[in-house]
Amino acid sequence: xxxxxxxxxxxxxxxxxxxxxxxxxxxxxxxxxxxxxxxxxxxxxxxxxxxxxxxxxxxxxxxxxxxxxxxxxxxxxxxxxxxxxxxxxxxxxxxxxxxxxxxxxxxxxxxxxxxxxxxxxxxxxxxxxxxxxxxxxxxxxxxxxxxxxxxxxxxxxxxxxxxxxxxxxxxxxxxxxxxxxxxxxxxxxxxxxxxxxxxxxxxxxxxxxxxxxxxxxxxxxxxxxxxxxxxxxxxxxxxxxxxxxxxxxxxxxxxxxxxxxxxxxxxxxxxxxxxxxxxxxxxxxxxxxxxxxxxxxxxxxxxxxxxxxxxxxxxxxxxxxxxxxxxxxxxxxxxxxxxxxxxxxxxxxxxxxxxxxxxxxxxxxxxxxxxxxxxxxxxxxxxxxxxxxxxxxxxxxxxxxxxxxxxxxxxxxx
Length: 414
Hints:
The chain is an all-alpha fold and 414 residues long. The protein has helices at residues 17-38, 45-52, 56-84, 86-106, 110-124, 127-138, 141-173, 175-195, 212-215, 226-247, 249-257, 261-285, 292-312, 319-333, 335-345, 351-378, 382-413. The chain is 79% helix and 0% strand. The longest helix has 33 residues, at 141-173.
């Protein structure tokens, strides 16, 4: 008696570099618009202040509204991404950001600005769960570090593009035209993603085959993974450090080192561009996941040392933008490794949920940091700003190694 054997279906061929580069480029373009939209209003505060008779505190509240809403949506959108797939959620987020920009451009009252800040926050909240679900499932392991590198670079470029685009347009045509152009840019990127939507197609994973940790608590079981909350804390402090650099560090350096205003304006741009360069190097360093924590430790350790130099050393004014660039490059090298430690903490079929919770730490950190460091600035504690920045960067290093320690403990227990 013979038994017919059923051969296993052949394994699908690995994706080509061209296929993966297309996915990385599309996801990166969407991520750029997310970061671009975070700075739609801030560069225009001088004009908005006059036209709406608003104080800087009131205008700053618009940013707080944006990030608080984004935080809540980000935590919830991860569940939606896992259930319905990332592509429709990504399209909806880009459409909302474009609509919000057009809404800002036609606003005639502070209340309208606040309402469209809510809309923008909803749109912004979907990107990290969507982006990392696409990258983690569509990019092969050898190229994943480079994918994270490009993802971080496009975010930095989005931050750099917003003031570079909006301020000249405002000077030439007015802030309403500038914001309408920003909305048009969001819809152009959405159109490109729609044309190449097949590259972003991703089947929804079944919920039944989960890890042991996740099964214990159903769809919310991933919240019992200690490494998830360690990653949340890491991103909270990462956002605090970034917010200090974006909002207060250049002005604090001006006060400490008598930096001319034209050089002060360069500090943030140099930091972001050099951070993007550091992410390129970080993509190669993250090719070996076992050294991710060490890469983060060295990068942020150097950045913390530079922050202390800015806070205490007597340096010439011309060197301040250079030091900001070195600090940005050092911090940027840890970007891809930062994202990999989250991937290693996430159960396979809960990627969207984990990234939604973990990356909500970014929004919370960006909402709280101005309250802490703004108080230091108001009291003239300019050196204290850099001390606080170095301390936060030190906490980042400890958090990264704690994630590894907790993850190993869970694996041993399992």
